[in-house]
Amino acid sequence: ALGCNDYDLAGNGGDYLPNQDDDDQPSDDDTGHEETGDDDTEGTNVGDDDDFEPQGDDDDDDTSGDPVGRVVTVLLTLNDQYMDQNLSAQLLINSVAWVTPAGYGSPEVLVIRDDNHSGEHPEDSEHIRDTLVAAGYAADLIDEPGGGISQQDLAGYEVAILSNPGHSPDDLSTLQALYQFSVQGFGLIFQGDDMAAFDDGSFSMESLTRLAFIDNGTDYHGHHIDNDNGDLYEVSMPPVNHPVLDGIGGNTFVYGDDIDTTEPADIDEEVLGWATVYGTNGIPTKPVIAAYSQ
Question: Which residue has the higher pLDDT, 8 or 49?
Answer without folding.
Answer: 49
